[in-house]
Design a protein that fits this description.
Elements: H1 3-12, H2 14-24, E1 31-36, H3 43-57, E2 61-66, H4 71-84, H5 93-116, E3 119-123, E4 140-144, H6 154-164, E5 169-172, E6 185-187, H7 204-213, E7 222-226, H8 235-246, E8 253-258, H9 267-278, E9 284-288, H10 294-303, E10 306-309, H11 318-325, E11 330-333, H12 338-341, E12 348-351, H13 354-365, H14 368-385, H15 388-403
Helix pairs in contact: 1-2, 2-15, 4-5, 7-10, 8-9, 8-13, 11-14
């Protein structure tokens, strides 16, 4: 066993690693390519950063490619993202034509790799049209949808669907997100890497340093939300919840920490809305962090008493998983993948309004024993269900199934 596999065995268990090695045997030497639209920022990039090298350690020729585009392309893909999550957005035909052009340009660059690969995983709508420009592909193509596609706005969805229908399989995070396709759809939840800088244990000195750097009062309670500055994450609703709770807990502090991603053109506008809503309250800290501030985010989550993720739409919500892994109760929006992770009264609370979030903040800060119990349950829940090794195991299972044209049953011999 290599050092990387040994490290994961220490966290997830040796049986988990043996299972991965068993599943990899029929795939050894196969080529696998993941394609998305950004190498930094966002949950997809964080997953691929560790999943690809771990697959290599297991003997698969794994690669990670990133498409490129201009501001008009990313404006279009952001609109498609929002429309698939239900916003009624009209997208100009000129932008949709540009979407095709950028995908064709990227296909011209990546075609030799993609057409030769045994398995190609295309993440989200941005590179979905690449398949159309790889006519000589020899392997299996899988479209991986990370967003809440349960109630898409029909016209933009039809635009994306025309590209996705030609794939060999699709992956969604929840059964409710699945859209009818002429190929099999699979349910695979995302995951966190327990060995990454964002999730490893940190020394107390480092926590104290981050606390001091941002002027956080060690004697006052603190709530934290970490996410992109995106309206679906409802950062303004979090500020409203904080302000209501603060009427009863005057020394309450709040940190809203987020970053930007190269494929998200709306971040700056949303950040301005958040700053306006926060006003001049000295106990609200709005932090725009660089994409590599993983240890800082780790520290802020560990310093928090409660972590919030009050999204109104959420494909999965890896920041929820991160907080549970650190033993923190989570108050999350009652939507999407957050429902998979926040089990009411056990790992946190699901809420639908700022008033509901405020009520749960006040409850938990007055029930320290309950917070501790939730933290223990949350960490155990993540260890069982949402670590990187489980997600890779399910990817490998899917690849074996596609390789052997299995429709509904996979036999794995010892």
């Amino acid at each position: 066993m290599t050092s990387m596999l040994e490290s994961y065995a220490a966290v997830a268990g040796e049986d988990v690693i043996r299972h991965l090695q068993q599943l990899t045997r029929p795939l050894r030497g196969k080529t696998m390519v993941h394609v998305n639209s950004t190498r930094v920022g966002g949950g997809v990039a964080e997953i691929l950063e560790k999943m690809v090298p771990l697959a290599r350690e297991l003997g698969i020729d794994a690669r990670w490619e990133v498409i490129t585009g201009d501001s008009e392309f990313y404006q279009c893909t952001k609109s498609l993202h929002n429309a698939i999550q239900g916003n009624q957005i009209g997208i100009p035909e000129t932008q949709l034509n540009h979407f095709r052009e950028v995908n064709e340009q990227n296909a011209n660059q990546l075609r030799p790799i993609l057409e030769e690969a045994d398995f190609v995983f295309i993440h989200d709508p941005q590179p979905a049209a690449l398949l159309q420009y790889c006519k000589e592909r020899k392997g299996k193509w899988i479209w991986r949808c990370h967003i809440d596609a349960s109630h898409p706005y029909r016209r933009p969805w039809r635009f994306v669907e025309q590209f996705v229908r030609g794939y060999d399989a699709s992956i969604f995070s929840l059964p409710q997100f699945v859209q009818p396709m002429p190929h099999p759809s699979y349910i695979i939840s995302p995951s966190i890497d327990p060995l990454s800088d964002k999730n490893i244990d940190l020394p107390q000195e480092e926590l104290d340093s981050v606390r001091g750097y941002f002027g956080i009062d060690p004697d006052a309670p603190m709530i934290v939300q970490v996410s992109r500055f995106d309206r679906f994450k409802d950062p303004v609703g979090v500020i409203e919840a904080y302000k209501m709770a603060k009427c009863y807990i005057p020394n309450l502090q709040m940190v809203l920490a987020g970053g930007s991603a190269t494929d998200d053109p709306e971040g700056e506008a949303v950040l301005n809305e958040v700053r306006f809503a926060a006003g001049d309250d000295p106990d609200i800290k709005i932090l725009l962090l660089p994409p590599d501030a993983h240890r800082t985010i780790n520290a802020l989550q560990r310093l928090a008493d409660i972590v919030l993720q009050k999204s109104t739409k959420e494909g999965f919500g890896l920041t929820v998983t991160e907080a549970l892994w650190k033993g923190k109760p989570v108050i999350g929006g009652d939507t999407g993948g957050i429902r998979l992770q926040v089990i009411n009264f056990h790992t946190g609370f699901l809420v639908n309004t700022p008033e509901g979030a405020s009520l749960r903040i006040r409850y938990l800060l007055n029930q320290r024993q309950k917070m501790e119990e939730m933290g223990i349950k949350g960490k155990a829940f993540v260890r069982e269900n949402f670590l990187l090794t489980r997600q890779l195991r399910e990817h490998l299972t899917l690849m074996v199934a596609l390789q052997h044209h299995a429709n509904d049953r996979i036999e794995v011999s010892g």
